Amino acid sequence: MQNVCIFVLAILFCQVAPDSDHGDAVINYTSEDFDAALEQSKLFVMFYAPWCGHCKRLSPTWNELAKLYNPLLDQTLIIGKVDCTVETALCAKHEITGYPTLKFFHDKYSEVVRYKSARDIQSLNNFIEEQLSNSPEKPEAKVSTGGLFDLTDDSFPKHIETGSHFIKFYAPWCGHCKRLAPTWEDLAMQYVGQEDVSVAKVDCTIHRATCDSYGVRSYPTLLFFRNGEKVDEYQGGRSLEELQGYMDTQLAVINVNADRTDEKIPEKVQVEEEKPQENLGAIFELEADTFTAGISEGFTFVKFYAPWCGHCKRLAPTWEELSKEMARYPVVTIAKVDCTFSTNICKENGVRGYPTLILFKDGQKVTEYTGSRDLGDLVEFMLEHIPQEVHDEL
């Protein structure tokens, strides 16, 4: 048994890189091993920058703290560090905006606790003992008085297993989420009492596993689920009327399919019939992992934009109208890319100002549109590039 413990300790401490400035007893974490470490134990982590004077002054104390906890055989807690000048993505994920930032992680999914008190060894140790004795329990799903389900990593799979569910994935600090919150509660009230139908929400700062599994990368993300499967991402307006109209459309699809069950229509045919209803006139929001596939077939007219850009905001309703106008052409997709989020995609396509409008054909850039942003001119531009045989078919 002793040999096994020594072997486990050897694996844990192989992550340590000598760093005399920031503690040689402290375990250094990277993006590759951080989440895996959280599966094994609790972490108390110093996010730092090598040039930071406050970080250097804290380091001897942080190293002493590591000597107290890291050698323990049960590995209940590990004292770690992350160099934010190297692990920029990891630090951004955990919202590090100053150095040093000290955060206590109970596990991969629970709410993170930020340490804001004195930085002497006794105060740090008292905080650790308090956290260890008060480990948070994962909350169960609950329903507000308005009928809005608050889902967790544990309750999510069972909740969506059957029926239809419109779910908001959000972060408490997100301004757009805060503005949507009262409308989302009002939407939930519209469906109280309907069997196998719900409006729900998931806090992605706590229940990261669920959000990660559905590729949630921005907030709020609104997804519609049917019988345990994600069927659509909502990208329309956020008024109560628009959200309820979308929800009713999705529920109507279920009723239509239910009426057809006696006909025993093959599953493939049903999917092909539903798809145009769901995507009719939709603007496809492309990101780093969907951009290449999104422009790979047919004609894709892409708006590269920034949410803060005034010209982009003025173009937005016209862009939506354009998507509706072009919905009759199956070979045409109207899309957009948020350059504050998908920066590499925008750089690769030479975007230097907002909005930039580029037409792609079968994955290749055709031209950049520099004309008027009037709906009529945009439609005319698209029709000039669509082959005549497509016009003839319609």
Automatic annotation (TrEMBL):
GO terms for molecular function: protein disulfide isomerase activity. Keywords: Redox-active center, Repeat, Signal. InterPro entries: PDI, PDI_thioredoxin-like_dom, Thioredoxin-like_sf, Thioredoxin_CS, Thioredoxin_domain. The keyword Signal applies. GO terms for cellular component: endoplasmic reticulum. Pfam families: Thioredoxin. Residues 11-133, 137-244, 247-387 form the Thioredoxin domain. This is Thioredoxin domain-containing protein. The lineage of its organism: Eukaryota, Metazoa, Spiralia, Lophotrochozoa, Mollusca.
